[in-house]
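Most newcomers find our protein records easier to grasp once they have seen one. A record pairs a protein's sequence with a compact description of its fold. An example says more than a description, so a record of this kind follows:
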Amino acid sequence: MRKIILLLSLFILNKSFAQLSGNKLSDKYVLVIHGGAGTILKSQMTPEREKAYQLALEKALQTGNDILKKGGTALDAVEACVRSMEDDPLFNAGKGAVFTNEGKNELDAAIMNGKTLGAGSVAGVTTIRNPITAARAVMEKSPHVMMTGAGAEKFASQQGLEIVDPSYFYTEARWQGLQRAKQEDSLKMKSDHADTARKSMLKQLENRDYKYGTVGAVALDRYGNLAAATSTGGMTNKKFGRIGDAPIIGAGTYANNNTVAISGTGWGEYFIRLVMAKSISDMMEFGKMKLKAAADEMIMKRLPALGGDGGLIAVDKEGNIAMPFCTEGMYRGFIKSNGEKVIKIYKE
């Protein structure tokens, strides 16, 4: 009898929780992550570095999967995934952020709740250890959507988030990346009068990729809710307080339970001009297009047609996944409730 009462109580509690969430609890969930798109070639990757990226993506996926598997929300899962990658110096976000022209690390992040269309973002912050958590605080604990710079940092501090000295974000690899980017700028300015040796060096440097590097996660949870999160250190050698697409709702980050959750990575100026994520959602909602067709149209056609490139990850309300990119590679992976898991880096 006692066992029956206990089981009945658990059933009632579970049902009540599902009702509070506004959806019926199911067994199905999907999680997709990315660690940035760009010139990622196997020929330029050592086996050790490739393994390190695979392990880092695996860790982020497992972090989010543990949350979703236990009935946690898509919002909690995407934040946790992005925090994992913000803390890993392999990625251009948080600890591994690139440097601006002034030698600073300026961080951007955004998060969105597909159920409520609530959204929050921070941009140009330099002392917040995990910008994605600050973005969520903006969404949930303020009447605003976006905060920038010192104001965002003050707000994060008032919310009890971890504040660090800017030196925390320094990594030698990113610092050397800035020096190479500055050298490239210098050579470009002199290229009209360059000698053969300098032209050869310039050609080699042009193969380097300084525009990309973002992390992101999208998820469909067991209650049928979608969420998206994106975080980035922006563009190496960026000037004048430049902000990319990652913290712009509808450009690099978007989630709507009626359609899709999206996190982008690539040349941000073009993602903003195309209103990338919202355009895909609108194609699905009003144009009745399937996720893959809409995502391919924007990433594989309209983005390069303007002169930009990059990629994105997406999951729709049915659990369908898209991970298109028009660069040489994109760190990416997904895991589903049925145990299916995939982690990829290069173009197939």
About this structure: The two ends are 58 Å apart (CA to CA). The chain has one domain: 23-170+207-346. Residues 47-69 form the longest helix (23 residues).
